[in-house]
Amino acid sequence: MSLDLPPSRDGVIAAALDALDSGRFQADLARRVAMPTVSREEAHKPDLQRYIDEELVPVFDRLGFEARIFRRDAAPGAFLLATRIEDACLPTVLMYGHGDVVTGVPEKWSPGLSPFQLTERDGRWYGRGTADNKGQHSVNLAALEAVLAVNGKLGFNLKYLMEMGEEYGSPALAELCADEAEAFAADMLIASDGPRIGLNQPTIFLGARGGMNIHLEVVAREGYHHSGNWGGLLANPGVELAHAIAALIGPTGECLVPELTPGTIPDDVRKALSRCTIETSPGDPELDDWWGAPGLTPAERVYGWSTLEVMEIEVGNIAKPLYAIPPWARARLQLRHPVGVDTDAVLPAVRRKLDQAGLQRVRIVPATDAAFPASRSALDNEWVRFVAESMQRTMGKPPVILPNLGGSLPNTIFTDTLGLPTIWVPHSYPGCGQHGADEHLPVSIVREGLAIMAGIFWDLGHRS
Asked: In the UniProt record, does the keyword Chloroplast occur (predicted)?
């Protein structure tokens, strides 16, 4: 970067935006998207290491960071901790991101689009990882580079943790942070993942809802049996499973098991959510106002309450019908819950509810999926105010402040294991298509994100 800009807040923001306008940012992101860093597929393990070696380490070397690599047997890829200590008396910020992605599913993408090729269309960059999470940490890295190019220093200490297994459930991350707590010690976490509340609404969130999967199964017998000969004589696992789901979730989507909800929404959380409006963008589905927990606003349903959703159901083969009573039925349900739910009480409560409905034959099968605990930093802390004021100074309007993300992230590792206040500044939006086909990142969010992060970094370095 060779811009001759004054060492000022406006100067570092201009330098960050030049990374976009010059095409450098797009070239960097295209190269990163082209690496198929799918952490759940064994064949792509070399790509996980290549992303660290070829993309991340060279950037941090250029920016004057010391890079350390950590490995754990349970993790699909290595962990990178890049550290730049300018003065032990200065505050230390820990940042976080992940370089792995979910599988590409190229057959589901729109014509002309491919998961591991960056394609620009209608003001959006398409490709796997553009939103989750390569595009987001690329914004932060470009903003850091702009600050150092213009100012010559950060004015604070920075540790940047990158993992290659978040989409695998972040195995061994908690263990690593506990074992190496001194290496990760900081005053606060600033990270970027997940979506904003809306396309045009810069957002801060302070934690994440927890996520856990509940697997249900009914196995009646072996083999299919003709429905004309055996209907009315043999129990139908599909019917039993349908009643089990209905015992847990009401016809309008309300979770019917009180132990799976927080019971109440804390006053400070309710107050914060009263200022939040969920807005849809072009291409988003229309909201179903009648769906979900009654008496709550849309924001409260997503950020302050629990949702129990059916993810998959298997019974028979609808594409190749046998017209026979199936021998088994299975379903995977997913609970998203805020702070206030005792996760140890979830499965016993589900078992009691099924038994009360006379559905003893429905089994709860141990889930092998990774679970994320819920976590949330305090809404009223100095770092939240500091980052919010910085974003308002840059954007000319206050950001939306959410108590937590509606989805799940390994935030509890930073709040509980490392004891840090956590502030997430996302550079994506709900309609980005993450984990599905046509994942994309609007260029408008990149532009705002570069300005926002350059402003935050400048303000951190000039904090009185």
From this structure: no
DSSP summary character for residue 56: I
Residue 50 to residue 55: CA distance in whole angstroms: 8
- CA 229 distance to own-chain centroid: 50
CA-nearest of 363, 354, 255 to 308 is 255
Are 117 and 107 in contact by the 8 Å Cβ rule? The answer is: no
Question: What would the two tokens of residue 18 be?
Answer: 């030049």
Residues 86-105 have pLDDT tens digits of 999 999 999 999 999 999 99
Environment class of 367 (CB within 10 Å of its CB; exposed 0-12, middle 13-18, buried 19+): middle
Q: CA separation (Å) from 333 to 262, 330, 350, 358, 456?
A: 18, 10, 11, 20, 39
Structural contact between residues 157 and 30, judged by C-beta atoms closer than 8 angstroms: no
For the chain, which residues make up each domain, given as ranges?
Answer: 9-208+374-461, 210-271+288-365
Q: Strands 375-376 and 328-337: what pairing?
A: unpaired
The closest alpha carbon to 307, from 266, 338, 278, belongs to 338
The per-residue pLDDT for range 228-243, each reduced to its tens digit, is 999 999 999 999 999 9
HSE-CB for 155 with a 13 A CA cutoff? 17
39, 76 contact by CB (below 8 A) = yes
The total of other beta-carbon atoms located within 10 Å of residue 195's CB is 23
The end-to-end CA distance of the chain, in Å, is 29
> What DSSP element (H or E) covers 272?
helix 267-273
Q: At what angle do helices 9-21 and 443-461 cross, to 10 degrees?
A: 150
Q: What's the fold here for domain 9-208+374-461? A: Aminopeptidase (3.40.630)
Task: Give the angle 174-178-180 at the CA atoms, nearest 5°.
Answer: 115
CA distance 17 to 154: 18
- Cα separation, 171 vs 180, whole angstroms: 15
Tens of pLDDT along 183-201?
999 999 999 999 999 999 9
Strands (E), 55-141: 66-70, 79-84, 92-98, 119-121, 124-126
- CA neighbor of 424 nearest in space, from 406, 442, 447: 406
- Cα separation, 208 vs 168, whole angstroms: 17
DSSP 286: P
Q: CATH assignment of 210-271+288-365? A: 3.30.70.360
Element (H, E) at 395: helix 382-395
